[in-house]
Structure to design on (175 residues):
């Protein structure tokens, strides 16, 4: 018997193997994307905090939002909607230190990978928030990380243990 074609069973086996390999690739790629977004968030917080320290050295204080707890952010929800540049940016009068303030890499979407149910269901909650009384400041990456959060993480926020990463002056930790 002279065989020149694959049988139906052989084709189904090959298709099943390709499907399994594709599933594995997609799952591993997704975890890489999550890790990349978390790394970007931490890098953004560090970059902004360094610029805030330069601002402090030049001006004797941090850009004020009118008091602790008066949050400014680049989200579309409560405390948000401030522009990313100019005198009225979410960090006020900061343009000469950072011409364009960064956005969260998952901005405008819900965060299904968050440990917090609010972040899993509220669009526009992945963003950065800032508050300052001029003497101290607190900067948040809100509705992060994607995945679990550890109290040993340098960005851990004890006030929002499942919802945010933070960088702040020591006095502002409890805001």
């Amino acid at each position: 018997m002279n065989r020149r074609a694959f049988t139906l069973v052989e084709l189904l086996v090959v298709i099943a193997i390709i499907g399994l390999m594709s599933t594995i690739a997609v799952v591993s790629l997704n975890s890489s994307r999550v890790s990349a977004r978390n790394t970007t968030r931490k890098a953004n917080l560090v970059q902004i905090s360094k610029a805030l320290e330069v601002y402090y050295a030049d001006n004797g204080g941090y850009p004020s939002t009118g008091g602790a707890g008066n949050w400014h952010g680049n989200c579309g929800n409560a405390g948000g909607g401030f522009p990313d540049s100019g005198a009225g940016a979410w960090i006020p009068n900061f343009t000469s230190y950072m011409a364009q303030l960064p956005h969260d890499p998952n901005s405008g979407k819900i965060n299904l990978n968050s440990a917090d149910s609010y972040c899993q269901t509220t669009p526009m909650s992945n963003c950065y928030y800032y508050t300052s009384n001029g003497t101290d400041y607190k900067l948040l990456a809100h509705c992060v990380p994607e995945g679990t959060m550890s109290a040993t993480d340098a960005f851990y926020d004890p006030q929002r243990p499942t919802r945010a990463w933070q960088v702040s002056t020591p006095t502002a930790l409890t805001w």
Q: What stands out?
A: Residues 87 and 93 are 4 Å apart (CA to CA). The chain has one domain: 8-174. Residues 8-59 form the longest helix (52 residues). DSSP finds two helices and four strands in the chain.
